[in-house]
Amino acid sequence: MKCLVINLDRSPERLAHVTAEFARIGIEFERVAGIDAAQRPDLALQPQHAMHAIRPLSGSEIACLHSHRACWTIIAQNDAPYGAVFEDDIVFSSKAGMLLGDTGWVAAGADVVKLETVFSRTVIQRKRIAAGHGFSMVRLRKGHPGAGGYLLSRQTARDFLEATARVNIAVDDLIFDPTMAAGKTVYQLVPALCAQDQFVGDRLPSLLDQERDAARTASGLMGRRRKPAAVRIRREARRIMRWIADFCRLRRQIVVPLAPVEANDMADFGVAGRPHTQRRENAL
Predict the structure, then answer these.
(1) Which CATH number goes with the domain that contains 192?
(2) Is residue 184 part of a domain?
(3) Using CA atoms, how far apart are residues 251 and 275, in angstroms rounded to an integer?
(4) Is the Cβ–Cβ distance between 90 and 106 less than 8 Å?
């Protein structure tokens, strides 16, 4: 399976990090030069999807999309049935190489498999399909943000290229939001075989998150007041109703865990095996 890594020319330290990660699991990768928003302001002139009407995508988020599109182009033109895309701050489970060496474990008919976790709650189908080496594939039934590590079929790469040919949309919304990925069979790997460094090492901060926080601070959204009690009660009631509905449909909520990283490797990240649990979205 071809493994593609998005890396900006101005981020050599991230390239060194991801090179060491792939060497650790014994897998080769191909670097794909990331699109730098500062060098491609023309991309922001394209229309944005209606879902971004309230908070338009930033220049970096648009550049992120087109960086992923560069990877989809490679996968779409390749002979292999699947290709994997990673961002350059990824940290792998010790067993990651056992799956990334081939695609024989991928369930028939899978369009997308999310390989990472961002440690936020999502919903999966209870039925599991064994992927070997302690991993399982489960249908993803709710949005699970982040596009730090995933694989997709050759046909799906072509479909995503067509869907974004004339409109900009956040990468993880396109791939992992069920309302956007309608008609696609999307799986989650459990446990995940990778996570971005900010969750397990906190050495490579999210470039997109930094820009988002600055924009929210400027707009006053970072200081929003606590919602009224009645609003919080209604929200909790809706959450309970969703849980009941998911249970009846053989679904369950889960925070996808990360498959173990070797103890000595975790020591290199300065942690004792417990990942950070703050929510994030996309860390290119």
Answers:
(1) 3.90.550
(2) yes
(3) 25
(4) no
Secondary structure (H, E, C), 207-273: HHHHHHHHHHHHHCHHHCCCCCHHHHHHHHHHHHHHHHHHHHCCEEEEECCECCCCHHHHHHCCCCC
Q: Which helix H or strand E contains 132, and what residues bound it?
A: strand 129-132
Q: Is residue 230 part of a domain?
A: no
Encoded amino acid at 67, one letter: S
Q: Which amino acid type is present at position 202?
A: D
Assign 108 to helix, strand or coil.
Answer: coil
Q: Establish if 228 belongs to a structural domain.
A: no
| CA gap 254, 117 in Å, rounded | 11
CA gap 112, 102 in Å, rounded: 15
CA angle, corner 15, sides to 135 and 186, nearest 5?
35
Ramachandran bin of 183, using left for φ above 0, alpha for ψ from -120 to 50, beta for the remaining angles: left
Task: Give the global pTM.
Answer: 0.80
Find where tokens 């039925």 sit: 127
Within a 10 A sphere around the Cβ of 31, how many other Cβ atoms?
Answer: 13
User: For 245-258, what is each residue's pLDDT tens digit?
Assistant: 555 656 789 999 99
3-state secondary structure of 102: coil
Residue in 45, 49, 7, 9 with CA at minimum distance from that of residue 172: 49
| Token pair belonging to 243 | 């849980």
Q: Is residue 240 part of a domain?
A: no
Cα 128 to Cα 52, 142, 174: the distances in Å are 34, 16, 24
Range of the domain at 125: 2-213+247-268
pLDDT tens per residue across span 135-179: 999 999 998 999 999 999 999 999 999 999 999 999 999 999 888
The number of folded domains in the chain is: 1
Distance CA 146, CA 165 (A): 21
In whole angstroms, what is the distance from residue 173 CA to residue 176 CA? 6
